[in-house]
Amino acid sequence: MKAVVMAGGEGSRLRPLTIKRPKPMVPIVGKPVMEHILNLLKRHGITEVIVTVQYLASNIEDYFGNGSQFGMRITYSREDVPLGTAGSVKNAEEHLTEPFLVISGDALTDYNLSDIIRFHQEKQALATLTLAHVHNPLEYGVIITNEDGHITQFLEKPSWGEVFSDTINTGIYVLDPRVLTYFEKNKPFDFSQDLFPLLLKKGDPIYGYIASGYWCDVGNLSEYMRANADALQGRVQIEIPGRHIGNSIWCEEGVEIAEDAQLYGPVYLGHDCKIKSGAIIHGPSIIGHYTIVDERAQVDRSIIWNNSYIGERAELRGALVGSSTSIKSKAVMFEGSVIGDNSIVQEGAIIQPNVKIWPDKEIETGAVVNNSIIWGSQGRRGLFGRYGVTGLVNIDLTPEFAASLGAAYGAILPKGSIVAVNRDSSHRTSRMIKRAIVAGLPSAGINVHDINQVPIPVARYYVRNTESVGGIHVRLSPHDPRIVDIKFFDQYGLDINKATERKVENLYFREDFRRVYIDDLGSIEVQENERVLNLYLEGFHKVVDEGLIRQRKFQIVMDYAHGSTTQLLPGIFNRLGVDVIILNTSADESLVTRTKDEVERDLQRLATITAALHTDLGIRIDPAGERIAVVDDRGRILDGMKMLAVMTSLMLRRFHQATVAAPVTAPSALQHIAKRYDGHILHTRVLPQALMATASREGVVLVGDGEGGFIFPEFLPAFDGMMAVAKLLELLAYFEAKLSEVVDDLPSYYLSRTRVACPWEHKGKVMRILSEQYRERRAKPIDGIKIDLGSKEWVLVLPDADRPLFHVVAESESSEQAQALAEKYARVVSGLQQ
Fold it and tell me: Are residues 713 and 585 part of one domain?
C-alpha cells in the first residue's frame, strides 16, 4: 500500500518556530516530526510515499530527497495555491490506483497502521477515518459512530454546546481511490468539510476506527512542548537518537559533559553539544546539536534547538530557544517564553512568561521584555466567550492588549473600511479600553467612526444602516466592576460569528497582523451624538403604533439602572404619551455594575413602588439597553422565562401562524401557547449569536432568550430593550389587557436549574457517554444533550462555553419534581467525570 503524507502545513500557530521552516520540519527529540511519521510507515511495511508540499516546500525536499537514505521511495506533489486536504491529494491521483493511506506529516503518533488498514479491508469501506478520544475536542472535527463503527455524523470544530462526543478525526485515513472521482482537480476541496459529509449524505460506506496509542496534533507551542516531553518519557513509541546512558538520559556522538554538571532525566543531548561545569539540567529537556550550556547555567523543562548558546548563570524555566540563538550570561527566560532563530538575548535580560520573540532580534542588556517582539500579548485559552472578549481591567485587558486586538480585527477587514466604536456610560474604564482599540484600528488601515457613549442597540443600528463594515462596543461588565466586555459586530450589527472570531484569534495569536504604510493609515472621526441617536429613533418610530399606545395612556414605573438609555427613552415615552415615574437616572459609573443580590433588591423596590402607586407595570432596563425585567400591575416580579411566555402569547395571538424562536432551555408551555394560537416555536442554541441568526428566518416575529432579551426582526435582528418596552405597551394596548391578565392566562410550568463543576479535559468525555447512554431518549440535537422523559418532563445537560462546568436544566409537573430531576442528573454528570 502507498501512503500520502500531507506536508503542506504552514504551522501558523507554532510561530515563531515555523517562520523559517514548514511545520513538518519542526524537530521532536532531534528529528523532524515528519521523519518520525516516515519511520512509522516503514515499520508497517509502507515504503512508497507521495508527499504533498506547499509552504517552504524546498526545505522538505532538500532534507528527505528521494527517500533512499530513509529506506523509502518518495515522490513530491506541489501545490501552487492552497487546494485543501482533498484537493492536494487529488493532485497526485495518477499515483493512486489502489487503496492508500493518508497521514499528516506534522502530527506525532505511534498508531498501529496495520490494524487500521485491516479494519478498512474487513468493512469493505470506501473511506476509513482514524479516530481518537481527546480532552478538548473544540479544535478538531468531532465524529459520531454507531456500534459497528459506521459514521453517522460530522461536526467540524464545534462549540461546547454542539459537542456530543470527545471522539475526533486525527487526519489519518485509508481511502479507496474511487473517492477522488467525487470532485474536480485544481479546485479547493477538503476531506473533513467537503468529501466525508458528501460520502455520508450519499450513504457510501464510511467508517471510523478508534485507535489506541498516542496521537498529538502538535498544533500549538504548548502541544509542541508536550509532544517532546511525552517522547522523552516513553508515552509515544518513537526512535530516540543516540544511546541511553542511564537515568533517562540519551546522548548522541561527541557530547561533552563536565564532571560536576548535574543532569536529571529525562534529557536528550544532541551530537557535539557541551554541558559545562556546574550546569544543571532538569528534564524533560532537549539540548540540540552543537549547543553549549555554559558554566552554572540552569535549564529546567526547556527545549533548545541546534547551534545555540546558553550563557553562564543563565536560566531557562519552561522555555523554548530556536536555532543559532544566544542567551547571554545571567539572562532569564520564564515559562512559556519562546525566542526564534538567529536572535540574541544580552546579559541580564529577562523574558517574561509567554513572551514570543521573532527571529533575528536582539534584546539589549538588562531589558525586561513583557510583550512579544514585534508585537503581542500573553497567551489565553481563547479570546472570545459568550460576552465577547472579556477580562480583568489592566490585568487581562490592558491598553496594549486592546490596541493589538483592534489591529487584529482591522486586519481581517478590507483596507479603507469603516468601523463604528462606542462605549457604555462607565467613565474611566471603558473609555481607556475604547481609546486603545481606536488607536489600533487605523494601523491596519481602518477608518474609525467614534459614536461615543450610546446603548448597544443604537450602536448595532448605526452599523447596520451606515457604510460601516463592523462595530465594537466596550462596556463594564454588568456583573463585575473589575471586568470589561468587548463586543464585536458584523456589517449587519450582529455579533460576529464563530468563524470570524477564529480569524481574529488566529491573527492575534500569530502576531503578524497587517500594518499599513503611512499613506494608508485610517482616520478617526467623532460622530455627532444627535445624528447617531436620530438615525435610531427614525427607524424606531416607524415600527411602533404610537397612536394606539397614546390612546391607552399608560402609567409605568421605569428604572433606568444608571445606564445610557436615559438619552432616548424619556423622549420616546413623551412621544407615546406614557406617564413615567423614574428611578436611577443618574449616569453614575460606580452603579452601572450590580451584583445579583443588588439587582434583586432593585426589583423588589420596583415591585413595591409599582403596586403601591397602582401603575400599569414596572420595568427595569439594563445599563446596556439590551434586556428588561418586568413587574406586573399586581407587583409580581416576572422572571425572564415568564416574560418570554408573556411576549410569546401576545405576539402569536397578534400574528396568525407566526413563529417565535426560543432557546432549548425554554419550557414546554411555549409549545402549548403556540398550539393555542396556531403558531410555531423554533428552538435554537442558547448563545446570543445563534438567537440573533435565527431572527432572519422567514416567519419569525419574535426571538427571546429567557433572560429578558427580546429581538423584533422587523426593526433590528438583535436584542433591544427599548423596542421590547414599546412593543409590550403596544400589544397590551392592542388587546386592551392588563399585564396581570396575560400572566394569569399562561399555562403552568416548573423549571429548575443547577450547575456542576467539570474540568475542561473531561467535558468531551461526559458529553460522549451521555449521548451514548441516552441515545434512545435524546431529543433532536440543538445545544447540549436534551433527554426527553415524557409529557412536560425533560432534562438538558449543557456545557458552559466559557467555564469548566455544566448547566443542568429540568422541567417537570411540579417545582419539587423539577428540582429532584435536575439534582439527579447533576449527580449523573458528576459520576461520569470519574
Answer: yes
136 and 55 in a common domain: yes
Q: Smallest Cα–Cα separation from 403: which of 501, 280, 530, 515? A: 515
Q: 252 exposed, middle or buried (CB, 10 Å; 0-12, 13-18, 19+)?
A: middle
Specify burial of residue 450 (Cβ count, 10 A radius: 0-12, 13-18, 19+). Answer: middle
Read off the pLDDT of residues 491-525 as tens digits, 9 standing for 90 and up: 999 999 888 998 998 888 777 678 888 888 999 99
What does the DSSP 8-state code read for residue 521?
Answer: P
In sequence order, what are the beta bridge partners of 50? 4, 75
Task: Return the pLDDT at 377.
Answer: 33
State the CB neighbour count (10 A cutoff) for residue 364. 12
Who contacts 448 (Cβ-Cβ below 8 Å, separation ≥6)? 418, 419, 420, 421, 438, 441, 442, 522, 523, 524, 525
- Count of CA atoms in the C-beta half-sphere (13 A) of 46: 23
Q: In this predicted structure, what is the pLDDT of residue 206?
A: 92
Query: Cα(650)–Cα(724) distance, rounded to whole angstroms?
Result: 12
377, part of any domain: no
Return phi, psi of residue 676, to 5°.
-60, -40
Q: Which residues of the chain are under the pLDDT cut of 50?
A: 375-381
The residue out of 535, 565, 585 marking a domain boundary is 535
Give residues with Cβ within 8 angstroms of 803, minimum separation 6.
none
| Pair 310, 445 in one domain | no
Rounded to whole angstroms, the Cα distance separating 498 from 386 reads 11
pLDDT of residue 164: 59
Cα(2)–Cα(77) distance, integer angstroms: 14
Question: Do 640 and 577 have their domain in common?
Answer: yes
Peptide bond between residue 16 and the one before it cis (omega within 30 degrees of 0): yes
Peptide bond into 374 cis (omega under 30): yes
Structural domain includes residue 666? yes
Q: CB of 405 within 8 A of CB of 508?
A: yes
187-203 CB burial, b ≥16 within 10 A, e <16: eebbbbbbbbbbbbeee
How many C-beta atoms surround the C-beta of residue 521 within 10 A? 16
Spatial contact of 319 and 334, defined as CB atoms under 8 Å apart = yes
Say how many domains are in the chain. Answer: 5
Task: Return the H-helix or E-strand segment holding 428.
Answer: helix 428-443
**Quick check: is 814 in a domain?**
yes
How long is the chain?
A: 834
Range of the domain at 701: 543-744
Going through 745-816 in order, the beta strands assigned E by DSSP cover: 750-757, 785-788, 794-799, 805-812
| Contact between 485 and 389 (Cβ < 8 Å) | yes
The pLDDT of residue 117 is 94
**What's the per-residue H, E or C state across 692-743?**
HHHCCCCCEEEEECCCCEEEECCCECCCCHHHHHHHHHHHHHHCCCCHHHHH
pLDDT given at position 476: 87
Identify whether 224 is part of a domain: no
CB < 8 Å & 24+ apart, contacts of 489-492: 489/420, 489/459, 489/460, 489/463, 490/463, 491/463, 491/464, 492/463, 492/464, 492/717
- Is-cis flag, bond preceding 284, omega within 30? yes
d(CA 42, CA 315): 40
One-letter amino acid at 711 equals I
* Number of C-beta neighbours around residue 72 at 10 A: 21
My answer on whether 719 and 793 are in the same domain is no
pLDDT of residue 378: 31
CA neighbor of 786 nearest in space, from 811, 815, 803: 811
Among 32, 9, 66, which residue's Cα sits nearest to residue 239? 32
* Residue at grid coordinates 491598553: 399
Are 321 and 357 within 8 A, CB to CB?
A: no
Of the residues 699, 728, 744, the one at which a domain ends: 744
pTM for this model (two decimals): 0.65
Answer yes or no: do 256 and 309 share one domain: yes
Per-residue H/E/C for 196-221: HHHHHHHCCCEEEEECCCCEECCCCH
